[in-house]
Write a structure and sequence with these properties.
alpha/beta, Aspartate Aminotransferase, domain 1, 365 residues, pyridoxal phosphate binding, Aspartate Aminotransferase, domain 2, lyase, Probable L-aspartate decarboxylase, binds pyridoxal-5'-phosphate
């Protein structure tokens, strides 16, 4: 039996909730070419190591950071864990804490568990952004890190990053921005989110999400290279002397595809994509609103709407890959593969369900 040949990977024509997308053709090609390389061993694989430097340089341009340092991680989870690790290592406290809004990604929970730091979760305001007063009252001299999210997973919101930076500095803590998803759309908005806007120390920004690279290509950026020293361990059996990554052997495919995607798309291609995705999100939000659903305004290309559970289940039964927020709203992420036609077909299915639900049951039924 040839199990792999018999199974087709899913296509994207009904995928509405993923934060990953179809890689750009040049990113797919680069991933295939560099499949058998390992940037974790730069002494043996110098070409891909050079490409990784290029990836960091391009990510720095996207994120407003001159002279950037960092590496291409397995994803946003690893980058977030490493940011917490840097902050813990840098902190003087023996009982360090991390302060994060409740909109922060669950990867910080993993980081806190692994690194044995206290995770202090503060509420968000009515617009789903970090409540600054709550953050202020939560930090103290043991705070090692304040986390702000630039493009939240559930509502696409951007926390007040410069203000969070001021709060972090007031207690000598670091500021981490999680722009895992938002990093490739925010350059085309008025939001203040990056290294040039605020005293950001570390950032997660993932090419394998809106950056249209192949998985796995996450990104960790640090304001100065010495921050990576907090992560570095000696590597006795390799030609290189130390390693700052969490994983050892890593995917050269992710690195090469990140470079290929960014070279092809930064900045104009990403700008065009942002405009397309944002227009789609606004179109969907309006279509849902017209049908009487309560919609969270899509300030980035992500729509959340209060749709009854039964409707949600019926849409999933029709093959739509949709998900729900923690409070139960339907959540649609307008990734590059999400076209207007897909959304129109989705709304068409929703309308058919509604018609069926509103047909009165008669004694003949
Ligand atoms: C804001 C944010 N941070 C981190 C992550 C985790 O990224 P990954 O799944 O690549 O580990 C996600 C995933 O969706 C995310 O939305």
């Amino acid at each position: 039996m040839d199990a792999v040949r018999e199974v087709e990977p899913q296509d994207f024509d009904r995928v509405l909730s993923s934060m990953c997308t179809e890689p750009h053709p040049v990113a797919r090609d680069a991933a295939e070419r560099f499949l058998a390389t390992n940037p974790g061993d730069p002494g043996t694989y110098p070409q891909v190591a050079e490409l990784e430097r290029e990836a960091i340089s391009l990510l720095g341009e996207v994120a407003g950071l001159e002279d950037p340092a960092g590496y291409v991680a397995s994803g946003g989870t690893e980058a977030n864990i490493q940011a917490v690790r840097i902050a813990r290592e840098r902190a003087d406290s023996r009982t360090p804490n991390v302060v994060m809004p409740e909109s922060g990604h669950f990867s910080f929970q993993k980081a806190a568990d692994l690194l044995e730091v206290e995770l202090r979760i503060v509420p968000t305001d009515d617009d789903h952004r970090a409540d600054l007063a709550a953050v202020r009252s939560c930090v103290d001299s043991d705070t090692a890190l304040v986390v702000g999210v630039a493009g939240t997973t559930e509502y696409g919101r951007v926390d007040p990053i410069p203000e969070l930076g001021r709060v972090a500095r007031s207690v000598d803590a670091m500021l981490h921005v999680d722009a895992a998803w938002g990093g490739f759309v925010l350059p085309f908005t008025d939001d203040e989110w990056h290294f040039g806007h605020a005293p950001v120390d570390t950032m997660t920004i993932d090419p394998h999400k809106m950056g249209q690279a192949a998985v796995p290509a996450g990104g960790l950026l640090v304001r100065s290279a010495d921050l990576l020293d907090h992560l570095a361990v000696d590597t006795p059996y390799l030609e290189s002397t130390s390693q700052a990554t969490l994983t050892g052997t890593r995917s050269g495919a992710g690195v090469a595809s990140a470079v290929a995607a960014m070279e092809a798309l930064w900045p104009d291609g990403y700008r065009r994509q942002y405009v397309r995705s944002q227009n789609n999100a606004e179109w969907l939000a309006e279509a849902l609103e017209k049908r009487g659903y309560e919609v969270v305004d899509p300030t980035l290309p992500l729509v959340a709407a209060s749709v009854p559970r039964s409707t949600f289940d019926a849409l999933r039964a029709r093959g739509w890959r949709i998900s729900r927020t923690a409070t139960g709203e339907l959540r649609v992420v307008c990734m590059p593969h999400v076209t207007r036609e897909m959304l129109a077909s989705f709304i068409g299915d929703l309308d058919r369900l509604e018609v069926r639900a509103s047909v009165p049951i008669t004694s003949d039924d």
